[in-house]
Amino acid sequence: MARLVLSGVVANLAGGTLFGWSLVARQASRDVGAPALTAAAVFAVAIAVFTLALLGTRRGLHVLGPRRLLGGAAVAAGAGLGVAATGQVPLALWVGIGLAFGAASGVGYGVSVALVARVSAPRRGAATGLVVAAYAAGPVILGLLAPHAVPVFGWRACAAGLAVAVMGLLAGAAALAPAEGTARWGPPGAEEPADRRTVVPLWVVFAGGAAPGLFVFASAAPLAAGRGLGPATAGVAVSLLAGGNLAGRLVGGWWSDRVGRRPALTAALAVAAASVGGLAGPIEPWVVLSSFAGTGLAYGAVSALVPAATADRVGARAFPRAYSRVFTAWGCAGLAAPVIGGALTGGGQRADLVLLVAVPLIPAALALLLLTPPLPRARV
């Protein structure tokens, strides 16, 4: 099982670098003569393609198996980043980053969480947390390296170097992954499709639990400025948000193995609600900074706990199909929370209305009560 976890960690470390696109997005768009809005639009397309690719991973796992899928993702990611690095027209960014790299990242993530679903239930939370934390670690590492490397070598050389690194990581993940398709996973009888009593509540929990964090990630800078934080302190707030996200994935998964997925998810939703309250309350720097950290912690925990809870309830063979449906909640929340939350709160400037961002947590908490019990451990 350690080999499965390592494969997932390596694949997600590579795929997560997609979220470092903003580090060179404006420079790349300007260099190819694209409008300023292209930088954000390319990333939006990549996220949409990411979600669609994850939805298609179920069938790919069944027919091709994890090893071939990760090998294909390595080729797509390398080609996409290579096209972006060498292209001289805006289409290179749309095709290279938006389509090819977005698809490779989605496939890598889908395969990774499917692999870790095969870990035994008593250790599944910690293993899932480690794998999804690797996805969050990718952009953190790029954020440390890019400010020093891009001014010296230029964004094109850095993108080409990233292409080589991502291809190598995904190829290594493929070598570690099993070759067989999901038809051979698990004992007989473990592949019944999950019913709506499992998928729908988990969908609501994921959407509602992730919405506050996605809003704060999208509005972090103006939200911090609106609370009276200076540029340096605002930078600390954003760092705490990212650090909390990473820590929440690691700690949340590990803790859930000891207390159970439902209590851990309940605690994550409570932390999210308290953190939103802190962002809407008195403007004290320590309260604001703590709330940024708490929001990241809760978002990271939900991101780790939902796939683990899905695997608990449907088993390894049915997991790719069930989780691909549950994961669309993240895509919906990622589109709706920043737009609706930003419109309602003036981009986070209206402190008295920030509490509205916590409203999705109410149906998420109610959905926890409707979750079906996990499968017996012998069938997982």
TrEMBL record:
Residues 197-380 form the Major facilitator superfamily (MFS) profile domain. Keywords: Membrane, Transmembrane, Transmembrane helix. PROSITE patterns: MFS (PS50850), SUGAR_TRANSPORT_1 (PS00216). It is found in: Cell membrane. Coiled coil: none annotated. The chain crosses the membrane at residues 36-57, 69-87, 93-117, 129-147, 153-177, 198-220, 232-252, 264-283, 289-310, 322-341, 353-371. The keyword RNA-binding does not apply. It is a multi-pass membrane protein. This is MFS transporter. It comes from Geodermatophilus maliterrae.
